[in-house]
């Protein structure tokens, strides 16, 4: 066995597969474009890249050339054909990627893995191709079989740089990359069928938003059960596309249009980099977060909201599904808790709590109306933590207190703005703070900004001051760093809190 030749083959094939996979993933997207990547370019040559990205005519040429280049370079390197040409082409392409976002410091992601100062993955792979270009040995590949019409000079060079014999055994070795391509291709296809299109192609990802270097310090942590989680938890509504936007009916569509899967992944990576280590999500978002964790290797803790299947009287189906998808904490969803209490079905809440705990998981209980939690408390149903809407009502769109009715959140929206119109989520702030004050388990406040009606500095401070141990906040990528800094500032200067910290 010629081990040197085998190692070079593996080396070449690995690089080829990277290029090929990048090309296939972009092609599979259908509407992929490098425009966003180019227009957000940084560094000394950003003007050149931004000029290309803002020209529709140029992008109509650049995009297909980019995809074709990745596919052809990758395929050639993988099967061992036109190795010198594909190596040079790959070096050129990687250098272009490198200078689009040169790692000269000040990156939004800071010293992220594989993207250190001066040296990043693009540079390392380009240098690897330089090595492959200059060494004589090219490994096993189709180039050695002389099945294609080569100029005599190229044929002589190929013959000098290899030890290929005309034996059948040697020929099979040179064909070995073909079945290897099939195996890798099948694996990638199987994953695409399970998870959908891979949106994290490495050469195109760009983290947007505020600069991570502006962080004011480390985000304080606390504990819920055995889990250490950040005092600021990322909410799932903005990511899931749910918006409480009063009568602005177009806002949910804008949320979903902005938060593509790729943007969601970028936002989560930024949040983790900023110190947020936990996300609280609606049940439908579990698949997206599971995919994110699989692709990125993220360790973000996932709190999954669950609800019973009342139609089929299956109260545990979503609990089991959430656990199967790898969540860390299971929480009964707020509106369903409210509805079950309202409809005198509080026993179902108890059964669900028991089911969660019997599986060894921390059990949370959420609500919009404080009456729900009071009723559960009176029945001896105490979760491992509460999640309660916590915000004041000193903002213009809050309807009068005397017109508020328990359990009306997520109910009918009235055209009369003196009644509920998707505008307030902590109906009775005073009663909420009284309940939280006597709670003996951690409390996570959510909707602390009343769905955007309250400034973060005000809302965060009010929730923590009035007993919240954690706050759950929906964030776009451009809000993450600011929200972390506000949390750090608020907790550092907090005054007037009388409740002890739990967790």
* Sheet with most strands: strand arrangement: 3-4-5-6-7-8-9-10
Specify the helix fraction band. Answer: 40-55%
Task: Quote the beta fraction.
Answer: 5-15%
What is the strand tally? 10
Mean pLDDT across residues: 86
In the CATH hierarchy, the architecture of the largest domain is Alpha-Beta Barrel
Would you state the CATH class of the largest domain? Alpha Beta
Tell me the radius of gyration. Answer: 28 Å
Content-based structural category: alpha/beta
Give the N-to-C terminal Cα separation. Answer: 60 Å
CATH-defined superfamily of the largest domain: NADP-dependent oxidoreductase domain
The parts where pLDDT drops under 50 for at least 5 residues are 106-113, 148-152, 157-166, 205-209
- Count of discrete domains: 2
Order of helices and strands: HHHHHHHHHEEEHHHEHEHEHHEHEHEHEH
């Amino acid at each position: 066995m010629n081990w040197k030749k085998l190692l070079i083959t593996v080396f070449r094939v690995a690089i080829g597969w990277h290029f090929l996979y990048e090309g296939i993933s972009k092609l599979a997207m259908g509407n992929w474009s490098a425009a966003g990547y180019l227009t957000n370019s940084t560094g000394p040559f950003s003007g050149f890249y931004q000029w290309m990205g803002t020209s529709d005519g140029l992008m109509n040429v650049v995009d297909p050339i980019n995809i074709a280049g990745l596919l052809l370079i990758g395929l050639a390197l993988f099967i061992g054909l036109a190795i010198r040409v594909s190596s040079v082409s790959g070096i050129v392409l990687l250098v272009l990627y490198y200078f689009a976002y040169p790692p000269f410091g000040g990156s939004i992601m800071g010293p992220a893995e594989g993207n250190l100062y001066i040296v990043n993955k693009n540079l390392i792979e380009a240098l690897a191709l330089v090595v492959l270009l200059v060494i004589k040995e090219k490994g096993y590949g189709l180039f050695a079989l002389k099945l294609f019409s080569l100029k005599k000079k190229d044929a002589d060079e190929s013959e000098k740089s290899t030890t290929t014999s005309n034996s059948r055994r040697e020929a099979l070795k040179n064909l070995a990359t073909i079945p290897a391509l099939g195996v890798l291709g099948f694996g990638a296809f199987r994953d695409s069928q399970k998870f959908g299109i891979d949106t994290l192609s490495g050469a195109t990802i760009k983290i947007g938003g505020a600069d991570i270097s502006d962080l004011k310090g480390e985000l304080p942590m606390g504990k819920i059960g055995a889990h250490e989680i950040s005092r600021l938890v990322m909410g799932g509504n903005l990511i899931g596309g749910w918006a409480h936007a009063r009568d602005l009916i177009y806002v949910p569509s804008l949320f979903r249009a902005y938060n593509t899967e790729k943007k969601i992944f970028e936002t989560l990576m930024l949040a983790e980099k900023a110190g947020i280590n936990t996300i609280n999500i609606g049940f439908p978002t579990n698949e997206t977060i599971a995919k994110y964790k699989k692709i990125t290797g993220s360790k973000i803790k996932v709190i999954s909201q669950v609800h019973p299947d009342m139609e089929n009287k299956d109260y545990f189906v979503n609990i089991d599904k959430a656990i199967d998808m790898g969540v860390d904490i299971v929480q009964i969803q707020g509106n369903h808790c409210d509805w079950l209490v309202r409809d005198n079905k509080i026993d179902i809440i108890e059964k669900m709590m028991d089911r969660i705990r019997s599986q060894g998981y921390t059990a949370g209980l959420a609500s919009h109306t404080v009456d729900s939690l009071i009723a559960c408390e009176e029945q001896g149903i105490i979760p491992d933590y509460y999640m309660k809407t916590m915000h004041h009502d000193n903002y213009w769109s809050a309807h009068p207190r005397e017109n508020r009715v328990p359990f009306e959140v997520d109910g009918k929206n009235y055209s009369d703005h003196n009644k509920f119109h998707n505008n307030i989520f902590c109906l009775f702030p005073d009663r909420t703070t009284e309940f939280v004050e006597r709670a003996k388990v951690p409390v996570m406040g959510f909707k602390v900004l009343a769905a955007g009606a309250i400034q973060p500095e005000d809302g965060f401070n009010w929730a923590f001051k009035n007993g919240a141990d954690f706050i759950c906040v929906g964030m776009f990528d451009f809000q993450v760093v600011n929200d972390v800094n506000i949390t750090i500032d608020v907790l550092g200067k907090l005054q007037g809190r009388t409740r002890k910290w739990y967790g």
